[in-house]
Amino acid sequence: VAGAVAGAAAAGWLYVRHQKERRQRSRRLRDLRALALGQGDFQLRDTAGTARSKADFLGRWVLLYFGFTHCPDVCPEELEKLSRAVELLERDPALPPVQPLFVTVDPERDDEAALARYLRDFHPRLVGLTGTPEQVRAAAAAFRVYVSAGPRDADGDYVVDHSVLTFLVDPDGLFRDCYSRSRTAEEVARSVRGHMDTYEPLPL
Amino acid sequence: AAGMAAPTMEERKACWGARDEFWQCLDSHGDDAAKCEKLRRAFESRCPQQWVKHFDKRRDFLKYKKKLETEGFHPPEAAGKS
């Protein structure tokens, strides 16, 4: 009899602890949600000239890359990789679609038309964003992306030095991961899939 | 928006191809640029000047990196001896 009582007490205690952990996780997730809406936000324009902010992309997984169209090699390579990662994920019909996003770090030259021309060569659903220099600066800062335009040459041409990272943002607008130049498309797709598997929507 | 349009995909690939040919020539002539003048000119004509500078720096970096990997790091002698 003593054993049965001890067993019941233990089960009771475990249940209470489980409930407490659930409440704590719930509270933490609510705090994260409040943070997410404030952090990593942007006020930019897509290639149709429509204003877009992070709120427009909530409910979707986003893979976001900062670059510029006059980029010698890194940006086309990273965009190829990004496009391929999205394609790999698209092969699994059970997975939600991923939204590829490109934000320019060179708003002076990369207007809507320049972005549309450039992004045509990559994934068909890739959305390009530009804005005023202030808006772009704020977006880069929100993602802690380093941006530094180099000196202009005689033709007025220049390159922009910038952090090379692809960010994964979840449907709640929270950062989940970031991928450097060394990660392959397959690795990125695998990582995104892993995040999707463990994702729990934040409580409303 | 200022100046020229960004290179298209075709133009990028033409530039990278010219760069690769030039670099292959340098590789097979022990980096003797004098032996690869024609390819150098082709490279410069196919790529924006800013990209030529960028790729020149990249090649220097890749060579330096290779040197570190094969020879190891030797700190400069100038760091005073006791």
UniProtKB/TrEMBL annotation, chain A:
GO terms for cellular component: mitochondrial inner membrane. One of its GO terms (molecular function) is metal ion binding. Its main location: mitochondrion. Cu cation binds at residues 71, 75, 162. It is a single-pass membrane protein. Keywords: Copper, Disulfide bond, Metal-binding. InterPro entries: SCO1/SenC, Thioredoxin-like_sf, Thioredoxin_domain. Pfam families: SCO1-SenC. The keyword Disulfide bond applies. GO terms for biological process: mitochondrial respiratory chain complex IV assembly. Residues 33-197 form the Thioredoxin domain. Disulfide bonds join 71-75. It is found in: Mitochondrion inner membrane. Belongs to the SCO1/2 family. This is SCO2 protein.
From TrEMBL, chain B:
GO terms for biological process: mitochondrial ATP synthesis coupled electron transport; respiratory chain complex IV assembly. It comes from the Eukaryota. Pfam families: COX6B (PF02297). It is found in: Mitochondrion intermembrane space. Transmembrane segments: none annotated. GO terms for cellular component: mitochondrial intermembrane space. PROSITE patterns: CHCH. SUPFAM superfamilies: Cytochrome c oxidase subunit h. Its main location: mitochondrion. The keyword Disulfide bond applies. Keywords: Disulfide bond, Mitochondrion. The keyword Cytoplasm does not apply. Belongs to the cytochrome c oxidase subunit 6B family. Involved in the maturation of the mitochondrial respiratory chain complex IV subunit MT-CO2/COX2. Thereby, may regulate early steps of complex IV assembly. Mitochondrial respiratory chain complex IV or cytochrome c oxidase is the component of the respiratory chain that catalyzes the transfer of electrons from intermembrane space cytochrome c to molecular oxygen in the matrix and as a consequence contributes to the proton gradient involved in mitochondrial ATP synthesis. May also be required for efficient formation of respiratory supercomplexes comprised of complexes III and IV. This is Cytochrome c oxidase assembly factor 6 homolog. The lineage of its organism: Eukaryota, Metazoa, Chordata, Craniata, Vertebrata.
